[in-house]
Amino acid sequence: ERGRVGITAADRNGPEYMGVAAYQELVENLPDAEFTFCPDLFHELTYRKSPEELAAMAKAGELAIAAQEAVRRTAAPGRREYELAAAATEAILAGGGRVFLMMIGSTSTADPQIVFPNPNPSWRTLGEGDMILTEISASYLGYTAKVGQPIVVGAIPDYVEQFYATVVRPGFDQISSRLKPGATLEDVREAASIFRTNGAQSRPIVAHGVDLITSGPTVTTGGVRSSGFDATLRPGMTMNVEITPINSEGTFGMFVSRTYAINRDGTTELTPYPLDGISRAG
Asked: Which of 32, 153, 173, 185 is the most exposed place for a label (fewest CB within 10 A)?
């Protein structure tokens, strides 16, 4: 009761800590203690993973991919967004995991209305030519991995395929190629300039770290945010690459994401889902 008590952040993005009432109760009952706020304590302990932790993340990656495939198989004209989310959720739970993120949105490619998945999958009914955007993060033993890949119902319009081939895939490849031991977060950020070079724009975030769940460091098109010790990529670190290229008019875009572990030679893919092209429903 006369020692130093560390208070970790419940959410490092703020950072946000425990509620005011809980903090006041501690201070009242331990008047001689010194309370110290430690926003990065757990991040410093978890930002580099052991082989056992990486194995749990790899299993989470398998479940995320199973969920992505469940969306692809379930998608068909007449189905609703929430039915896709239900199928994906069942795939994760059946594999012994839990859902961390289940974001699924759909839009007509003839009249696009979204550039990013829906945090609350709706009752919207799918039709021919619709595009489905996913951001699915599965959890296994508390560790998470993420996948996101566009799916089209029916024939894929030429302009959609072209945007993926000339903007989305080259951008993803350039950013993910910077994930290697010794690279800096600034190296990763510089790679995101490819979207402007190719005549498009982008949602700001392009990569972030993974502790047990989504965490820092964060890389955006405009800068990086880190705790200092995580500013250089090292073996055992895990990163999500997640890009949302958007056309120059701001009317059409796609979300693509994968999770990687940094190793001594480069990276290990924890969500090794094909990037060759847009997925076809069914």
From this structure: 32
Sign, CA dihedral 20-26-28-32, equals: negative
- List the beta bridge partners of residue 143: 140
Three-state DSSP class for 67? helix
Using DSSP's 3-state secondary structure scheme, residue 76 falls into coil
DSSP H or E stretch at residue 94? helix 81-94
Q: Is the pTM of this model over 0.90?
A: yes
Tell me, what amino acid is at 170?
Answer: P
How far is 38 from 54, CA to CA, in rounded Å? Answer: 25
Amino acid identity for residue 226 in this structure: S
pLDDT digits (tens, 9 = 90+) for 37-88: 998 899 999 999 999 999 999 999 999 999 999 999 999 999 999 999 999 9
Q: At what angle do helices 51-74 and 81-94 cross, to 10 degrees?
A: 140
| Residue type for position 216 | G
Which of 232, 271, 241, 273 has its CA nearest to residue 54?
271
Contact 37, 66 (CB under 8 A): no
Q: d(Cα 31, Cα 16) in Å, to the nearest integer?
A: 23
Bridge-based pairing of strands 34-38 and 4-8 is parallel
Helix (H) or strand (E) holding 210: strand 205-210
